[in-house]
Specification:
The protein is α+β, with helices and mostly antiparallel strands and 518 residues long. The chain folds into three domains: 100 residues, Immunoglobulins (Immunoglobulin-like), CATH 2.60.40.10; 101 residues, Immunoglobulin-like, CATH 2.60.40; 206 residues, Rossmann fold (3-Layer(aba) Sandwich). The strands form seven sheets. Strands 11, 12, 14, 16, 18 and 19 form a six-stranded mixed β-sheet that branches. It has a five-stranded mixed β-sheet with strand order 2-9-8-4-6, with no helix packed on it. The protein is rod-shaped and about 140 Å long. It starts with 33 loop residues before the first strand and ends with a helix.
């Protein structure tokens, strides 16, 4: 606020000196009566980079000519300035206009004081205020550098944009990544209130090897920082993808044999296995395949019960009851093969057992796929080399590609203190099967997972590990398929809209997700 320090008044003064003289003319003494209008000048909120103008009037309401002796900023002008007037004289009853500008370069509150002094004793300190506002974007990190990744992988990095200003900030658009292996995943515009941050995601999906360098250009609604550039670099490596092949069998029956270890330490796992039978049976029905299942736990290799197999022609209740009989029948005294799933399966599939009048007659059908599922909480201690067991199984299957070995056991490195299921795992690897961890909380899910992969599903190509979906390619008889299939993440399988023809060579290639994630 300014305050009036002087007033202007005129007085008539008569001086008597004892002699008669002519009356002197009036003697007028002038005092200041100059006022600012407005008394304070407030620019309000102004965007950083803007330069609004306001007019300040100095009014001479006195009866004399006034001269401005001093017109300056009390403590420096800061973002305020004025145009010097052409004349510093203010006739009585007249005004002196001053053009004052506010040019904030950074967000914040500003205050200045304009000092005015006249020759008539007027002294004013006029407050001049204003607020500069801006979004003031801050980006961390200032550049993105992807680690080296294999062609076909899809990896992401983030950068964070923070509104460090005192007003709303909007990211309006982005450019610079079109036609490149980089992509900004966020939908624009993105608005940020004061002190708010947003993490943006940039994805790198290379289809060719090489070094890449691009610049992401962001357009903002900020006057001071109207745009931002973010450098992005990456390197893609030409690493060969994993290749899975399958000779398609559109209508092939499936014979499954579970070879289950029954040692004392397996007791809790057997309970879980029992609980998982309904899930396994549902999964097999979902494939549409003509399936049958038997379980062997005895050294002699005989499947216990009235029938060596469970099949779709039985009721669900009978199926489950029969499987439980196979699993829980008392083990032989001093069982040697209690920790030998491969040996158990070999015994069950011996010529004597699956032949006419054998204890497992009907367990094996000509032309059906043969899926052997070993279940053990540790290494398979079967005495013969794994290759010998595989040769036996292939002979029973009739064709090598009719055979797959799978397992519920401990993965490489073990789990929950259970050592790696060596031996069984080797057989699984050799035949392209799947191993489900026996330490998992839901063995029903595990039996679902394994049983689906042990049959020739006419519509689904199951993969043993999780792929980077972006890298998936599918070929049928050498012809790439860009349509007619989809990816099911729950089943970890390629699903065909229509079954490939019987005998077709189907190839699925991909980069394992684990490799893409480093």
């Amino acid at each position: 606020m300014g305050f009036v320090f002087g007033v202007l008044f005129c007085s008539n003064r008569e001086t008597n000196i004892g002699v008669a003289v002519d009356e002197p003319p009036d003697v007028r003494e002038c005092f200041g009566m100059v006022f600012p209008d407005p008394g304070n000048l407030d620019f309000g909120s102004v965007p950083v980079g803007g330069t609004p103008e306001e007019t300040l009037l100095l009014l001479n309401e006195g009866g004399c000519l006034a001269q401005v002796l001093s017109l300056s900023w009390a403590d420096g002008s800061g973002p305020f300035e004025f145009d010097p007037p052409e004349s510093m004289l203010i006739p009585e009853g007249d005004v002196l206009p001053l053009t004052v500008r506010f040019s904030p370069e950074e967000p914040g509150d500003y205050e200045g004081a304009l000092w005015v002094e006249t020759d008539l004793g007027d002294v004013w300190e006029i407050s001049v205020t204003g607020q500069g506002y801006s979004g003031q974007p801050e980006v961390t990190p200032e550049a993105i550098a992807f680690e080296s990744v294999a062609v076909g992988c899809s990896v992401s990095e983030t950068f964070t944009l923070t509104n460090a200003g005192n007003s709303r900030l909007e990211v309006r658009s982005a450019s610079g990544l079109e036609g490149t292996p980089f992509a900004l995943e966020d939908e624009l515009p993105v608005a940020l209130d004061e002190a708010e941050s947003h993490a943006f995601t940039v994805t790198f999906r290379p289809t060719e090897g090489g070094a890449y360098e691009e610049v992401l250009h962001l357009v903002l609604d900020d006057a001071v920082v109207p745009d931002l550039d973010l450098a992005i670099t990456a390197e893609a490596l030409d690493e060969a993808p994993v290749e899975r092949r399958r000779t398609w069998r559109a209508d092939t029956p499936a014979d499954l044999l579970l070879a289950v270890s029954t040692t004392e330490s397996m007791a809790p796992h057997l309970d879980d296995l029992d609980d998982g039978f309904p899930a396994m049976l549902d999964a097999l029905d979902a494939t549409g395949v003509d399936w049958q299942v038997g379980i062997v736990t005895q050294d002699g290799g005989c499947v216990l019960g009235e029938t060596p197999v469970v099949h779709p022609g039985q009721s669900a209740g009978l199926q489950e009851a029969t499987l439980r009989t196979m699993l829980w029948s008392p083990p032989e005294s001093g069982s040697e093969d209690a920790r030998r799933p491969l040996a158990l399966a070999s015994a069950a599939l011996s010529a004597d057992n699956i032949g006419a009048a054998g204890c497992n007659e009907g367990l094996r059908r000509d032309g059906a796929t043969l899926g052997i599922i070993g279940v053990i909480n540790g290494p398979d201690q079967s005495p013969d080399p794994v290759a010998d067991y595989l040769a036996t199984f292939e002979a029973v299957a009739g064709e090598p590609d009719l055979l797959t070995v799978h397992g519920v056991g401990a993965p490489d490195g073990g789990c929950n203190g259970i050592p790696f299921s060596a031996g069984l795992a080797e057989a699984i690897e050799e035949t392209g099967g799947a191993l489900y961890p026996i330490c998992a909380s839901d063995l029903g899910e595990g039996l679902d997972w394994v049983a689906r992969r042990a049959v020739a599903d006419p519509l689904r190509f199951y993969l043993p590990e999780e792929p980077e979906v972006f890298s998936l390619t599918v070929e049928v008889d050498g012809a790439p398929l860009s349509a007619g299939w989809s990816w099911d993440a729950t089943l970890n399988a390629v699903i065909f809209d229509i079954s490939p023809e019987d005998g077709a060579e189907v190839v699925v290639r991909y980069q394992p997700l684990e490799d893409c994630e480093g």
